[in-house]
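Renewal narrative, Specific Aim 1. Our central claim is that a sequence can be written position by position from structural information alone. The example that follows is taken directly from our test logs and has not been curated for this report. It begins with the structure tokens describing the chain, in the order in which they were read.
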């Protein structure tokens, strides 16, 4: 229940629907009890002549309220059916129909209003999860499987929605129905009702035993669903490689093993859940059987209960079974939903290690330099960078080169604050980036990565990520600078052409130029290029390199390069080795040193 208390906060905006649901559920519960109780005076008058009253009863105080009510109803029916008993029968039928009509109308209204609350909670939980997913740092997703996250935001949230309804039924409608019914049953026969209560703890204990392990079993099912969704996501993302290496059977085996486990866990869970309804119904019928014996004895032998009252009482007793079964079913739903709520709240309550100060500065301009001061950083146990220092003056182009694992891309991740440094500080114009709002920091920067990350949308909308309110002319100008306008114009619908999932309808060079156009349109003072040309062929590289050079004019650039031919015009080239600067200078200066840089150039010339 602790998890559901936390989920309840999402119901606050829809509390008026909750109150309306409670109001109509109360009326539903009341009329459920009255619909059977109303039969008693009718049965008394129609079948037992000695119960007919021809004189109106007198109210003698609240102590005799039950007798007064029964006599009053008897008198009214007697007067109505004085000439014709069929008129009395019609009254009975009409009253029962009206009561059942009102009962079902209130039931519909209760369900009508709860629908807005249920779907509102579903929407807000999903929105909160999506917001959290985009807010959490990139490091979080190196440990999590995407399929598991998708399962949590889809099926787990849906499970909470169903359970949320169940818990409202558990708290309001069904207990009230039982409460009002039992009050009427006490009024008819306290002795018989006390006898019923002997069997309730026994039934409850059996149902509780059945549902004890349901949360654990439900948790296994939901985790396994995340597993096979992860396999699907990885398969679709890596389909080319899977086909190229004839690995379809290997991935199918992994998927089939996961679905087999899901099959087994689901069977165990559903069979345990399905046991609740028949066992609850059997226990209910067993109680009814015992009531028939005990109540029949009171009517036929003890003469302490009249037949019409006993008939109405049995109707009420059987009417208790339906809400009791619903409570049993709802309690199973709550246990199952509790596991889903735990998985959803695990994400919602994850602390973001890259936090923002309450009084963080919104920086809108860049005037002097970027400074990396004595920074040290590690992803896990081993430091990638140790006591690293670097200054990038405004308007300068600084290139970082070195072998894989030397820390080049790590510097780009730290400057953009995708990760936080373990030691030291990164300053922009003397201001620590931790003292700035993340939004204003990233507004100062444009990023072009080795992998062109594009979205399943039009060319125009992909470029507009850089500046949402840009005009048509600005979009075209950015595309021209990125050497992309020509190929975009040749597409079937020009700038309105959909480029497919991850931009797969375009070539590698086209995708990269589109990424550059996006960065150009943003027009930031600082540009970070993370191996932007390393995955391209020679012709595409020439076009992209030309676009990059045009884009970097009059901008501060931090260039992470794999191909050394692309950074020869940089103001300063930094050569890294195991997180340390081993050489720095211009292209000509480094060649003259005849050191590490010259060896890297020679190796690439031979390849």
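The sequence written for that structure reads:
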């Amino acid at each position: 229940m602790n998890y559901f208390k936390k989920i309840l906060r999402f119901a606050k905006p829809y509390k008026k629907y909750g109150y309306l649901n409670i109001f109509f559920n109360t009326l539903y519960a009341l009329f459920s009890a009255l619909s059977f109780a109303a039969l008693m005076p009718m049965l008394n008058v129609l079948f037992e002549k000695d119960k007919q009253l021809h004189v109106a009863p007198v109210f003698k105080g609240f102590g005799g309220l039950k007798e007064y009510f029964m006599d009053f109803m008897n008198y009214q029916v007697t007067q109505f059916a004085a000439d014709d008993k069929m008129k009395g029968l019609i009254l009975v039928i009409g009253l029962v129909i009206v009561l059942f009509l009102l009962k079902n109308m209130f039931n519909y209204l209760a369900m009508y209003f709860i629908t807005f609350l249920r779907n509102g909670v579903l929407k807000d939980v999903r929105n909160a999860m999506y917001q959290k997913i985009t807010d959490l740092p990139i490091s979080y997703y190196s440990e999590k499987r995407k399929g598991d996250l998708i399962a949590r935001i889809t099926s787990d949230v849906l499970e909470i929605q169903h359970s949320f309804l169940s818990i409202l039924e558990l708290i309001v409608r069904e207990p009230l129905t039982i409460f009002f019914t039992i009050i009427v049953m006490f009024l008819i026969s306290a002795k018989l009702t006390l006898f019923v209560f002997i069997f309730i703890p026994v039934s409850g204990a059996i149902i509780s035993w059945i549902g004890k392990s349901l949360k654990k079993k439900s948790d296994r099912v939901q985790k396994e669903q995340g597993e096979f969704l992860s396999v699907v996501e990885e398969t679709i993302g890596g389909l080319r490689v899977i086909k190229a290496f004839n690995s379809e059977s290997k991935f199918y085996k992994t998927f089939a093993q996961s679905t087999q486990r899901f099959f087994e866990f689901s069977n165990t869970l559903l069979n345990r859940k399905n046991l609740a309804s028949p066992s609850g119904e059997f226990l209910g019928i067993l109680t009814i059987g015992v009531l028939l014996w005990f109540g029949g004895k009171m009517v036929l032998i003890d003469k302490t209960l009249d037949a019409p009252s006993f008939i109405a009482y049995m109707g009420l007793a059987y009417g208790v079974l339906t809400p009791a079964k619903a409570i049993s079913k709802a309690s199973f739903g709550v246990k199952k939903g509790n596991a889903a709520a735990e998985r959803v709240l695990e994400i919602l309550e994850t602390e973001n290690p890259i936090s923002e100060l309450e009084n963080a500065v919104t920086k809108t301009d860049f005037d002097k330099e970027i400074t990396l001061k004595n920074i040290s950083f590690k992803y896990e146990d081993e430091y990638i960078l140790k006591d690293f220092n670097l200054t990038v003056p405004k308007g300068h182009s600084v290139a970082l080169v070195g072998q894989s694992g030397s820390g080049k891309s790590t510097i780009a991740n730290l400057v953009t604050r995708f990760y936080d440094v373990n030691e030291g500080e990164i300053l922009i114009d003397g201001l620590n980036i931790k003292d700035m709002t993340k939004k204003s920091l990233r507004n100062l920067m444009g990023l072009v990565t080795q992998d062109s990350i594009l979205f399943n949308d039009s060319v125009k909308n992909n470029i507009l990520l850089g500046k949402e309110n840009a005009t048509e002319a600005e979009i075209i100008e950015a595309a021209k600078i990125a050497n992309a306008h020509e190929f975009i114009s040749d597409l079937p619908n020009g700038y309105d052409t959909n480029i497919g999932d991850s931009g797969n309808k375009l070539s590698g060079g086209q995708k990269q130029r589109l990424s550059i156009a996006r960065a150009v349109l943003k027009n930031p003072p600082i540009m970070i290029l993370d191996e932007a040309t390393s995955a391209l062929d020679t012709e595409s590289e020439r076009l992209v390199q030309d676009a990059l050079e045009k884009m970097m004019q009059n901008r501060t650039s931090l260039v992470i390069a794999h191909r050394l031919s692309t950074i020869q015009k940089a103001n300063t080239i930094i050569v890294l080795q195991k997180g340390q600067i081993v050489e720095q200078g211009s292209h000509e200066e480094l060649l003259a040193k005849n050191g590490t840089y010259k060896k890297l150039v020679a190796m690439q010339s031979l390849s």
